[in-house]
Amino acid sequence: MAKLWILTVFAVAALAQVSLAADLGEALNMNIREQLRLYDIFAKDPEAAKYSEDLKKLIQITEGALKTESVQEKEQTINTIDKNFNEEFNKWVGAKLEHAQVNDDIHAAITFYSGLLQKATPHEEEIKKTLSTLENLLKETNLKEKEDKFLGLTKTFSPEFEKFLKESSLPEVNQTLKKTAAFFATLLEQKEGKYEKEIADLKAKTEAALADSVSIDEKNKVLSEVSLTADKDLNDYLAKKNIELA
Description:
signal; about 75% helix
């Protein structure tokens, strides 16, 4: 059965941390407001007429979660919201949410590639071609087709353009590495006595990835590894601290 709710890894992992109820509540409210915005858009879709009553009920339940002060109640509502509807409606809303997420990713890509045109580049034609492809993808109604074409977009790039893109994103990747290393450093300074060795290792690994000799592919790999480790309990702890320090 399709789930109606999409939350970030950090938000989900930190929900169990009662001590951070206020921060978690606001994090959840941000997600709830975004869902309500999307539901309002869905309601204007011609095919929504078939689900008008269920959609109204979904909005009412979601608005109720927004008004609830208890983080536990918000979590309970979010985790069980699909149980209020039949499978057909859940699948419809789930597909609409996924479609909206893909469109958001495409819009972000358009912003990125448009930014590349602000500077002189020998890849102007390829960038414009990519932008045209992305804009056409926004019009694609078949979700699977849209996802497949979007994920396969880089396969159409020339080796020279691919190299250019990697070099263009290097400053941002390094900045993310620096912020991540600073996050780990802050945790160690707090001296809570939890996961100190593991966090120290993550910090060292992140800092090592900042070296100029490390390729951008390896830098991205390190970011992925330190952002979501193989230790679930450690991930939960880092999620809690991430929200606490935000």
